[in-house]
From TrEMBL:
Domain SH2: 589-690
A Pfam family recorded for this sequence: STAT_linker
Family statement drawn from the similarity comment of this UniProt entry: Belongs to the transcription factor STAT family.
GO cellular component, one term: cytosol
Gene3D superfamilies in alphabetical order: EF-hand (1.10.238.10), SH2 domain (3.30.505.10), STAT transcription factor, all-alpha domain (1.20.1050.20), STAT transcription factor, DNA-binding domain (2.60.40.630), STAT transcription factor, N-terminal domain (1.10.532.10)
Protein localization: Cytoplasm; Nucleus
GO-annotated molecular function: DNA binding; DNA-binding transcription factor activity
CDD domains: STAT5_CCD, STAT5_DBD
Lineage of the organism: Eukaryota, Metazoa, Chordata, Craniata, Vertebrata
SMART domains: SH2, STAT_int
GO biological process: anatomical structure morphogenesis; cell surface receptor signaling pathway; epithelium development
Main location, first listed in the record: cytoplasm
Name listed for the protein in its UniProt record: Signal transducer and activator of transcription
Length: 696
């Protein structure tokens, strides 16, 4: 039976979990109307870790959109009209969300199908898998869920043992009271005549001996029960710690890394719903075990029996408190980062979230979160637990926000919507460092209690590094600092240390990611483009990509030292190209009409073998954000000789007056776009239509 048919029959928590899989990233209506098609596709045949698989993923995305559009077209009638609009909207939405990152769509659908299969399997108590979706990610999820099941069984087992211990202890206390009553009766015999005493004493002494022997045996048994329970709790806490490490140190850290790369134009980091459900399960299990350990301590105090149990329970209580503290402090995270290039006197937003807030009932007394901007040095001191009370490096307006609980999603978060950096206090800079290399961070902090003020937590989290600017002209240099940091920061670093030099292929990956995101294009930088950039970066003439594989580029080469013979850096030139393409050349770049990354000599060599009137478009070497037209034609000064001509570069200023396509149309001597495409075939769809002449 199809998984979706079975998923629709789920109830209670399982149904809620199914609903939470869907949202803007993948609407539930798409799952419903294309259920058969979705379940019939080879999602598990795509390796998410292999970028080469992006082509397969793109095919699946295109097919999904076609299926949706087909489904929309077949809708008729009044109800069908609304559905037609809705499905058409979803087709556009999915295209814009995943067109640049089709592998993320595959990741999303794999997760949805795997989770539905698991929920259906659990509901039917069947051990046989409904499908074959067990790729590495699903395998990992499966292991996490298995560990939770083991923890549930262990916790239930210790709960049963604790009840049994309580019952036995209560019976022990009754027998102990009985021994005290017998002792009182024996003591009262002294007031009786000797004959009566001799008559009753043997029976009472026998009873006392029996009860005391039982009490001695039972005290040993109770002590064994207590030790056995403590050992089981030790086992549970060890597994809890291990599971928490997997979720917080692996999964959550990976999410944060994806969030950091998304700042450079990488794929979206994905939602937090799965992580939150895991963290909530951890919180629930930790709290249950904490309550059990406290009940065991209460039983010990009620009936002290000499032995090692007191020390063991103290140790268990300390361990469980450490575990819950680590969970709470690690799950106070920034869901939506503030902008990493932050202009003073400009409104900005951020969202912080506590993944265990709903489960620990923190929302019953909503905590307030405060945002402060601090320097790199202050961040270092903070992580070393040095006293930095009230230290800040500037003033943020609207920097307090109360966390709100959203019942439908079960999320507890604070949305800072109208923050503004009023002023910044800069530190003394080192050597050649400029203001656009200085890194700050936004510190978010809060305090709240759980368990009716039993435990009070002070939580803090730091944003990704922020570069503060006061003028738009500083933006490109600030972006360079952020790009380098996001791309090359290592997990667990001291704030905000990054390598001073990186391998060229690593930088290429970061530049390509940024370029595709800025230009909003699937057409990234080709190997030829990257060789051109390497030649520019290293002042080299080699055209062999292998020659650059092991070369390193320093931060100074990237954006501190000017290129030879120029008054701008490598990054400033590259950023200028991105800006120009993003604003004015995007359709032509996507069409493959712009070669762009070609130097003057290469252009000459390419064009001299082509007919007169052949032209190409290349980014200017001498000007930031310029594009020039090179074409081959006769040399007017020498009959029979041909030469390559280069126009003065066009810039944003020129294109705000007249577009590239119209300028090419104006130049009648331009006939063929390299290698041999008639120019109108390539550019005519972008020409501005001539104004109609009115007959008067």
């Amino acid at each position: 039976m199809a998984v979706w048919i079975q998923a629709q029959q789920l109830q209670g928590d399982a149904l809620h979990q199914t609903q939470s899989l869907y949202g803007q990233h993948f609407p539930i209506e798409v799952r419903h109307y294309l259920s058969q098609w979705i379940e019939g596709q080879p999602w598990d045949g795509i390796d998410l870790e292999n970028p080469q698989e992006e082509i397969k993923a793109k095919r699946l995305l295109d097919s999904l959109i076609q299926e949706l559009q087909k489904k929309a077209e077949h809708q008729v009638g009044e109800d069908g009209f609304l559905l037609k609009i809705k499905l058409g909207h979803y087709a556009s939405q999915l295209k814009s969300t995943y067109d640049r990152c089709p592998l993320e769509l595959v990741r999303c659908i794999k997760h949805i199908l795997y989770t539905e299969q698991r929920l259906v399997r659990e509901a039917t108590n069947s051990s046989s898998p409904v499908g074959s979706l067990m790729d590495s990610m699903s395998q990992k999820y499966h292991q996490i869920n298995q560990a939770f099941e083991e923890l549930r069984i262990l916790t239930q087992d210790t709960e049963n043992d604790l009840r049994k211990l309580q019952h036995n202890q209560e019976y022990f206390i009754i027998q102990y009271q009985e021994s005290l009553r017998i002792q009182a009766q024996l003591s009262s015999l002294a007031t009786l005549p000797p004959a009566d005493r001799q008559l009753r004493e043997p029976s009472l002494l026998s009873k006392r001996a029996t009860v005391e022997a039982w009490l001695t045996r039972e005290a040993n048994t109770l002590q064994k029960y207590r030790l056995g329970l403590a050992e089981k709790h030790q086992k549970t806490l060890a597994l809890l710690r291990k599971q928490q490490t997997v979720i917080l140190d692996d999964e959550l850290i990976q999410w944060k890394r994806r969030q950091q790369l998304a700042g450079n134009g990488g794929p979206p980091e994905g939602g937090l719903d799965i992580l939150q459900s895991w963290c909530e399960k951890l919180a629930e299990t930790i709290w249950q075990n904490r309550q059990q350990i406290r009940r065991a301590e209460h039983l010990r105090q009620q009936l002290p029996i000499p032995g090692p149990i007191e020390e063991l329970l103290t140790e268990l209580n300390s361990t469980i408190t450490d575990i819950i503290s680590a969970l709470v402090t690690s799950t106070f995270i920034i869901e939506k980062q503030p902008p990493q290039v932050l202009k003073t006197q400009t409104k900005f937003a951020a969202t912080v979230r506590l993944l265990v807030g709903g489960k620990l009932n923190v929302h019953m007394n909503p905590p307030q979160v405060k945002a402060t901007i601090i320097s790199e040095q202050q961040a270092k001191a903070l992580l070393k637990n040095e006293n930095t009370r009230n230290d800040s490096s500037g003033e943020i307006l609207n920097n307090n926000c109360v966390m709100e609980y959203h019942q439908t999603t079960g999320t507890l978060s604070a949305h800072f919507r109208n923050m503004s950096l009023k002023r910044i206090r800069r530190s003394d800079r080192r050597g050649a460092e400029s203001v656009t290399e200085e890194k700050f961070t936004i510190l978010f902090e809060s305090q709240f209690s759980v368990g009716g003020n039993e435990l009070v937590f002070q939580v803090k989290t730091l944003s990704l590094p922020v570069v503060v600017i006061v003028h738009g002209s500083q933006d490109n240099n600030a972006t360079a600092t952020v790009l380098w940091d996001n791309a090359f920061a290592e997990p667990g670093r001291v704030p905000f240390i990054v390598p001073d030099k990186v391998l060229w292929p690593q930088l290429c990956e970061a530049l390509n990611m940024k370029y595709k995101a800025e230009v909003q294009s699937n057409r990234g930088l080709s190997e030829e483009n990257l060789v051109f950039l390497a030649q520019k970066a290293f002042s080299s003439s080699s055209v062999n990509p292998e020659d650059y594989r092991n070369m390193t580029m320093t931060w100074s080469q990237f954006n501190r030292e000017s290129l030879p013979g120029r008054n701008f850096t490598f990054w400033q030139w590259f950023d200028g190209v991105m800006e120009l393409t993003k604003k004015h050349l995007k359709p032509h770049w996507n069409d493959g009409a712009i070669l762009g990354f070609v130097n003057k000599q290469q252009a000459q060599d390419m064009l001299m073998s082509k007919p007169n009137g052949t032209f190409l478009l290349r980014f200017s070497d001498s000007e930031i954000g310029g594009i020039t037209i090179a074409w081959v034609a006769e040399n007017p000064n020498k009959a029979g000789e041909r030469m390559v001509w280069n126009l003065m570069p066009y810039t944003t200023k020129d294109f705000s007056i007249r577009s590239l396509a119209d300028r090419i149309s104006d130049l009648n001597h331009l006939l063929f776009l390299y290698p041999d495409r008639p120019k109108d075939e390539v550019f005519s769809k972008y020409y501005t239509p001539p104004l109609c002449k009115l007959d008067l």
